[in-house]
Design a protein that fits this description.
The protein is of the alpha+beta class. Helix content is 39%, strand content 19%. The strands form 3 sheets. A 9-stranded mixed beta sheet has the order 2-5-6-9-1-10-11-12-13. A 3-stranded antiparallel beta sheet has the order 4-3-14, with no helix packed on it. It has a two-stranded antiparallel ribbon with strand order 7-8. The chain binds zinc ion (ZN). Its EC number is 6.3.5.-.
């Protein structure tokens, strides 16, 4: 049954949303959090397991130092304090995809806490406080077979794959986020998108939302406009795209508003997000005092990163992506709109690499956004899958700068590059694209244009030099576009005595 919802504007006229976002990031370490099993995605089920990640009696876990380093990197990049000493804890609950019957996590002693970050939405900057970032292990993966929905209800049997059990996870938890209601969903989306960029820049995760290596749980509650008392929240689990985060938050605002406006009570529960229909449905009820019987993990030594190590990691952090964008925009002299086009077109990194090869930012943007993004769009491909890299773009631009190509011919070279016809030089040779630099050939074409257009020549001679433009057009046409227009103008002007 589909729940009643209010229009978003009506919902926001009566209620203020309050959010909390929990993001799980799978780290890209080669081995698991507490054992040496490989973490590669897509291996046949249950081929990447051992006694430790299967929770067999007597197996002893050992902490993956690289995962701790990644956790510290993430914490520092989110302006967190890094614990001088912290422990893992057992979170006890039974779930068939968790072979140990507890998840090794962190409870009251997270490795990173008290941080903050910022996101920009519609030109406004919003500060988001970070409660904590803690280390834990992923669970296995259940597949429910035989039902219509792929969920456990209605399934005839279930399969479980423990390859994912024990893969290092970092859970990043925000404090309460209160922003203007009409910005809430966009801020949630911008936050997850910013995290993705940040994690990618840190090199700690491959952040593939489609493979579940970055997933977001969105807590949403409503309170009557102006009220200081928080309402009951729901937690929509495992939302796995930026757009879905925005849609799920919007949906929960409209659904909860309808419940409250009709005098009902919001149930505190987890909810499932349905990508296809854009709605959430009830999961399981969840109380605040759910008893996981947390206690410190007795099989693992505490994690006590030395201050020297933390400072060493801090000094190795790359520039934050948001700040880097601001810096590049300033250096390149792009407008906000141009920069947004570049970022949305996934052309930022290619342009950076092309500029590093000596091409001006404007020329790099022209080719990447104009020619190549259009071609990628037309063929439904990613920009980086076209087979044209920064080196080719720089090579073509050098040919333009040297006067061997004009922009129009360069476009044909790009077309050849996309079609795999060889290097720019080979394509020019095969397609006969070089500009005619031989003055005598140009002068012959100019003579032909003058002879064919006596009326234009008369206009020029009677004091209308602008009319010569028609002659340049005729020469370019005669040369099949393979002439440098500036050179033609220069020779023509000399000929006509302008
Ligand atoms: Zn293992």
């Amino acid at each position: 049954m589909t729940a009643a919802v209010l229009e978003i504007d009506d919902a926001l006229a009566q209620y203020d949303p309050v959010m909390g976002l929990e993001v799980h990031v799978e780290l890209n370490t080669r081995s698991k959090m507490f054992c040496g099993c490989p973490t590669e995605f897509g291996a046949p089920p249950n081929t990447q397991t051992c006694p430790v990640c299967l929770g067999l009696p007597g197996a002893l876990p050992v902490v993956n130092a690289r995962a701790v380093e990644s956790a510290i990197k993430i914490g520092l990049a989110l302006n967190c304090e890094i614990a001088e000493w912290c422990r893992f804890a057992r979170k006890n609950y039974f779930y068939p995809d968790m072979p140990k019957n507890f998840q090794t996590s962190q409870y009251d002693e997270p490795i990173a806490y008290n941080g903050w970050t910022e996101v920009v939405v519609d030109g406004e900057t919003y500060r988001i406080e970070i409660e904590r970032a803690h280390m834990e292990e992923d669970t296995g993966k259940s597949t429910h077979v035989g039902g219509a929905t792929g969920r456990i209800h209605g399934a005839s049997h279930s399969l479980v794959d423990y390859n994912r059990a024990g893969i290092p996870l970092i859970e990043i938890v925000t404090k309460t986020i209160e922003v203007p209601g009409d910005k809430a969903a966009a801020v949630a989306k911008a936050y997850v998108s910013m995290l993705r960029d940040l994690l990618l820049a840190l090199g700690v995760s491959d952040v593939r939302m489609d493979q579940g290596s970055l997933r977001c749980d969105a807590n949403v509650s409503l309170k009557p406009t102006g009220s200081a008392t928080f309402g009951t929240r729901t937690e929509t689990k495992n939302v796995n795209s930026f757009r879905s985060v925005e849609r799920a938050v919007t949906y929960e605002i409209t659904r909860q508003a309808a419940v409250l406006a009709s005098g009902g009570k919001v149930v505190q529960e987890t909810r499932h997000w349905h990508e296809d229909t854009g709605i959430t449905t009830s999961g399981r009820e969840k109380s605040d005092a759910e008893d996981y019987r947390y206690f410190p993990e007795p099989d693992l030594v505490p994690v006590a990163p030395s201050r020297e190590w933390v400072e060493e990691i801090r000094s190795s952090l790359p520039e934050a992506p948001t700040l880097r964008r601001v810096r590049l925009q300033e250096e390149w002299g792009f407008t906000d709109l141009e920069m947004r086009d570049v970022v949305n077109g996934n052309a930022l990194e290619p342009i950076v690499a092309t500029v590093e090869l000596g091409v001006t930012p404007t020329a790099a943007k022209k080719w990447w956004l104009g020619e190549l993004a259009r071609a990628a769009n037309e063929s439904g491909q990613e920009l980086n899958a076209l087979g044209v890299g920064p080196a080719e773009v720089a090579e073509v631009q050098k040919l333009v700068d040297a006067g061997s190509l004009n922009d129009k011919l360069a476009r044909q070279v790009f077309d050849g590059l996309i079609k795999g016809e060889g290097t720019p030089a080979e394509i020019m040779a095969k397609r006969g694209l070089a500009l005619v630099s031989d003055d005598s050939a140009l002068i012959e074409a100019i003579d032909r244009a003058i002879a064919a257009n006596p009326d234009v020549v008369e206009k020029v001679n009677s004091g209308k030099p602008a009319a010569a433009g028609a002659l340049i057009g005729a020469v370019m046409k005669d040369m099949r576009g393979q002439a440098d227009a500036a050179k033609v103008r220069e020779l023509l002007n000399a000929k006509l005595g302008i």
